[in-house]
Amino acid sequence: MRTIEVSDIAREVRRLVQAVNFDTPDTTMSRLAQILEREPSPAGREAMRQIVENRRLASARQVPMCQDTGMIVLFLELGQNVHLTGGDLREALVAGVRDGCAEGFLRKSVVEEPLFQRRNTGDNAPPVVHVELVPGDQLRLVVAAKGFGAENMSWAKVLPPAAGIDGVKREVVRCVEEAGPNACPPVVVGVGLGGTLEMATILAKKALMRTMGSRHPDARYAALELELLDLVNATGIGPQGWGGQNTAMDVRIEYYPTHIAAIPLAVNLDCHLHRHAETLL
User: Fold this and answer.
1) Chain segment 154-178, per-residue pLDDT in tens
2) Whole-angstrom Cα distance, residue 22 to residue 119?
3) Are 69 and 202 contained in the same domain?
4) Given 146, 170, 193, which residue is the final one in a domain?
5) What is the pLDDT averaged over residues 40-51?
6) Is residue 30 part of a domain?
7) Where in the sequence is the domain holding 16, given as residue range(s)?
8) Which among 80, 106, 206, 239 has the fewest CB atoms less than 10 Å away?
């Protein structure tokens, strides 16, 4: 049994909330630079030039790369042999988000309830939290800042089994086409397949947490990821919707066993900011 203080978790959340808004991982920056170099459309290339320059300035000056600093989403893989001490885990996660957003001067974008008064919480808390129990004595923490230009363009649907692979392809491409410039392309497309409706949506969001360019370990799904990437880029939407051959940076799929009567499908789009980072405690 290994002991982890919840205050240490709060500290890491506080640090990563700022890091994902200020800094771009090398793998993502390399992909953005590659798109800039290869984009044939003059308008699309200019959009990419501004995107890359913005990312460099944000990192150099340690300021947010976008005015929408996102709603914080946390994925925790908690080892079964970990004993948490020193307080309540959820309270620690909320404190980490609150303190990180305050210290980083990050925009407060969360409202207390979604329908009536929509009063701002004033601290960008609470985050959305997903906890999964796994073997071992470590805690893997993934922190994501999800902007809502792309989140607004995401959706979930249950397809009949007869829709098959072609039906899934059509729906994924349709989602990106309907999003157009609103999702701030070049996007990352997270696709969740299987389980139930809510499982598919979580899988789609988890797919976004993978490293840029990583492929699914199942060769069939890896091939489908690459095919979908080509299909999405063939839409011609291009960087920031200005036209071009680079509408998506990546497409990633995660799946789960499902019922014989359906193909649950969710598409979660991420804007070109693609803000997430992880740590191991």
Assistant:
1) 999 999 999 999 999 999 999 999 9
2) 27
3) no
4) 146
5) 96
6) no
7) 2-22+65-146
8) 80
- Burial code (b: 16+ CB inside 10 Å, e: under 16) for 200-223 equals bbbbbbbbbbbebeeebeeeebee
Q: Assign 266 a pLDDT band (cuts: 50, 70, 90).
A: very high
Looking at the fold, whether 74 and 121 belong to one and the same domain comes out as yes
Which one of 101, 126, 146 terminates a domain?
146
* Residues 126 and 179 grouped into a single domain: no
| Inside any domain, residue 35 | no
Average pLDDT over residues 205-215: 95
- Specify the 3-state DSSP secondary structure of 41: coil
Q: Residues 268-273: what's their mean pLDDT?
A: 96
Check residue 133 and give its pLDDT. 96
SS3 of 66, please?
coil
> What integer pLDDT is reported at residue 1 of this predicted model?
86
Whether the CB-CB separation of 84 and 137 falls below 8 Å is answered with no
The torsion region of residue 214 among left (phi > 0), alpha (psi -120 to 50) and beta comes to beta
Query: Which residues, 6+ apart, have CB-to-CB distance to 215 below 8 Å?
Result: 222, 225, 226
Mean pLDDT of 218-231: 98
Q: Report if residue 120 sits inside a domain.
A: yes
**Confidence band for 17, pLDDT divided at 50, 70 and 90:** very high
Record the tokens describing residue 259, joined without a space. 């019922």
Determine the pLDDT at residue 194.
Answer: 98
**Is residue 48 included in any domain, yes or no?**
no
